[in-house]
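Why do we bother with a discrete structure alphabet at all? Because it lets us treat a fold like text: something you can write down, compare, and reason about line by line. To make this less abstract, here is a complete entry for Class I SAM-dependent methyltransferase. Read it the way you would read a sentence in a foreign language you are learning: slowly, and without expecting to understand everything at once.
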Amino acid sequence: MGVTSSDLYDETDAQRYDEDNVSVSTPEVLNPMLDVLAELAHAGKVLEFASGTGRITVPLVNRGLDVAGIELSPHMTAKLREKMPPGRLPVVVGDMATATAPDVGNYSLVFLVFNTISNLRTQAEQVACFRNAARHLRPGGRFLIELWVPQLQRMAPDLHLAPVQFETNGHLVFDTYDLASQECMSHHYRPQPDGSVRYGSGRFRYLWAPECDLMAQLAGLELESRWADWSRSPFTSASPSHVSIWRKPEH
Ligand SMILES: C[S@@+](CC[C@H](N)C(=O)[O-])C[C@H]1O[C@@H](n2cnc3c(N)ncnc32)[C@H](O)[C@@H]1O
């Protein structure tokens, strides 16, 4: 596989990431996630694809887990390094669709959260990512994904645009969709203290849970659980996102 289709998080993105994501870095948000991940790890090795600045991996290591990461951006990894040294949390800077972490084949859990499978913007790379996860797992190990459900029902049809989020701090998000190619672009508008608005965008390939299941099947993985959230609520047609877990067969 050649060069990744993912947008690269540059130094500015890395500098802003933790501050922009304060609302999803609180103990109230993180603890239910960390509880599930720790339980699924069964005290074995854990690998995060797209480990970023360590929002999840650093607290997992602090809970005593044996964790590694694969992350495309050296800038995001440099921010993680300000929090934890490589001896405690090894990170391979590379593409999660192709890169190899130490102890490949020995992980009890590989996880990919915060919708990041969609940062791979071709179907072929998303399939490769599932295969790469399966390759890293020990027999009986699990691959977990947290992914939003494309909100096409919210779309203004003539505009191909859907409102996604409006937070009390004024942070506004719209997504634009190209239905033919399954491409999506998120547009973020963040009010600044000086009264200006900072615009940022990200490009994604959206996919539904059943397409994930097909990719898992191609990678030799079997669906074990699908929840609407980290407290294991049932996934329904109204659920805006899902947490899905596939298992690598023992034999
Ligand atoms: C929304 S952030 C999530 C970071 C972290 N998982 C978290 O939950 O805070 C997305 C991350 O995915 C990384 N990323 C994007 N494409 C990638 C790829 N092909 N391989 C590895 N990492 C990738 C970005 O550099 C960025 O750090």
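What the structure line is telling us, in plain words: Residues 4, 6, 9, 50-52, 55-56, 70-73, 76, 95-97, 113-114, 116, 119-120 surround S-adenosylmethionine (CB under 6 Å). The chain has two domains: 11-149+207-247, 152-202.
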